[in-house]
Structure formats: structure tokens, C-alpha cells
Amino acid sequence: MSRIWQYLLERFPPALMGSVSVVLALGSLAKFSLTSWLIASLALFLYLLELRLFDEFKDAAHDQKFYPTRPVPRGLVTLRELNFLLGLDLLGQVGLLAISGASWPLFIFLQGYTWLMRQEFGVKEWLRRYFTAYLLSHEVVVLPLFLYLMSLTAWSSVGQALFLGLGLFSLEIARKTIPRRVGAYDTYFEHYGAKGTLILLLAILTLMAGLFVLQSFPALLAPTLVLSLIAVVLSLHRLR
Questions:
Q1: Measured distance CA(140)–CA(100) in Å, rounded
Q2: What pLDDT does 30 receive?
Q3: Cα dist. 27→24, 153, 203 in Å?
Q4: Cα 165 from Cα 24, distance rounded (Å)
Q5: Cα separation of the two ends of the chain
Q6: Any alpha helices (H) in 28-123, and if so which ranges?
Q7: Angstrom distance (rounded) from CA 24 to CA 169
Q8: Mind listing the pLDDT tens digit for each residue in 82-133?
Q9: Which of the residues in the chain have pLDDT under 50?
């Protein structure tokens, strides 16, 4: 158990990811309810952990070559152990779905698309050569993800799901905006350069601000906008 905890601290810091989940889940509510907020936060946390675990499997060879000090390549945990953790994660998600009355069709669609992502849609080498195609094919999952979370309160808004998805995307870009990591060719900096990465981030932030104003979104979404602004500032600091 201590090894699993160490893995999480390195690859999926519970405090950080929990904070992100709490903020984004708040924006998925039609109206504030502590119970719904807690359920949505935990559901998002578990789904993001699922993505992290899936990446360990599909990136195993890549990590072994370029990141040998990460937990799996260096032998801290095994893929078999992570597969067991993944099973517990999925059971938790199903349990939350059952008690919340959220949409089963949206959950099934979300999980189906996520499984295709794990398999790289059967065209792994092609996607690895075309980073933008890889990016688009993987980021589109945010729409069914947040529509599913909204179904916890029978609330469905494509515009709001897009807003939240862009917020999560901005955090992902900030996470991978690390200029010193050169060679693995898996960061935005390596593909788009400092200028291109910042333009992408600013475009996302501008679109989010526009949606927030024009769509008259509820104040519950304001923390997500602030979180994205922090992501932009962090990226600016890293790329300066």
C-alpha cells in the first residue's frame, strides 16, 4: 500500500488533483448542493485517475525509454498492481453512478471512448507522428465527461461542458509546458514552441472568458476561469 501511495504522490498527487476536481465539479452543478458537489468531485477525481492509469499502460515503452526514473520503469509498482487499482477505481465510479442516478448512457459512452483512447484508436504510430491529431482525438473526451457529471443533477449544457473542458485542457497544457524536457517529443513546447504554446493557452482563456460573459454562466463556473488563468501564469513563468 505504501508503494501505491508513493506512486500517487509522484504521478497523481491526491491533494492537487482533488483540488482540481473540486473546482471543476462545482462548475458542473445546475445549482449548489453539497451532496451533489461531493459526488461530482469524487466522480471526476476517479475518472482523472483512470486516465492516469491508462496512460501508464499505453506509454509503458515510451516511459521506459525516456523516463526510466518514473515509478513503473524503475520498479516501484508493476502494471499488474496498477491494473488492480484500475479495477477498484472503476468499481468506485460505477458505485457513484448507481447511487447518484446519473446517466448510464453517457457513462457507457464515456468509458467506451476512453477505452478507445487507451488503444490509441488502433492507429498508435500514426497518432504519435501527428501530435495535433493526437491532441484533438484525446481532448474531445471532455465533452461527454462533463455532460456526464452534469447528469448528476439532470443538467445538460453543451456550452457549459465546453467551458469546463477548456478549463481542464488549459491545466493539461500547463502540466506539459516544461521546456527542459526535450527529446521525448511529448510536450507542447517541443511541438509548438514557446510562442505557439502560449498562443494556444491565451486562445483557450479568451474563449472561456467569452463564453462566460456571452452565455451568462452561473457564478459556480468562476473558479474554473480563475484556475485556467493560474495555468496561463504558470506557463508564462516556465517559458520565460
A1: 25
A2: 84
A3: 5, 12, 21
A4: 9
A5: 40
A6: 34-58, 60-66, 79-100, 104-118
A7: 12
A8: 999 999 999 999 999 999 989 999 999 999 999 999 888 888 888 878 888 8
A9: none
